[in-house]
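FORM 7B: Structural annotation worksheet

SECTION A. Query
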Amino acid sequence: MACTTLESMNGREVVRCGWCSVTQFKTQNGLCRACHKPFDTLPALVPTPNNRPPDRPAMPACGTLITRLPGVITDIRRSRGLSQYKLAKRIGMKCCHYVSRIEHGDVTPTVMVLERVGVALLVNTSQIIQLAEEPGIKVDGMFRAVEPNIGARIPHVLDVVIQETGMKVFDLAWKMGVAPSCLYNTLHGKKSVPRLPSLQVWAGACSTTVHAIIRRAEEGV
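SECTION B. Predicted structure
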């Protein structure tokens, strides 16, 4: 009950409303005379340190991968002896403006663009991302032939990764701080392939890395 019975007077109950704390005779319709809220339902529980839901775990900063990626692409391009213009031509662009913006960190390439850059530089997309995620690490320099359009396989890989963690989509959405519908749409191909910042949040929530997700997409796992 959302009211407290204090006493009875002339056969009528005197109650204190649990919503507004006004003392009054109990009405026949069961509604408070002051706030007009029902006596038979309780007010919503006010969060306290003892009953509020646990805080979401801290997610990794998305800037780490994104800020290192331009330098990684620049270093690989220079090691191949290519100019920005030649790289742009190899990935099917008429000028080097977009490549320059990528290398200066003005734009973050999509997975599809990064795949084309990797093919032009004879390095796998997962290797580029691994160098950005784990600076100083030595990766296998061998270019592995993979099926094209790895971006289209990422939703399937994410679905597999979620199943391996044993988490439900709702729990993962809460951990990532997004609506469950966003995850469902991504997993079922109703949204575009997640961009690298989003993939880093996915990876952090699933206790994996972006380059591991990309590598599994390259391998068709």
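SECTION C. Observations
Residues 1-42 form one domain. Confidence is low (pLDDT under 50) at residues 45-49.

SECTION D. Sign-off
Analyst initials: ____
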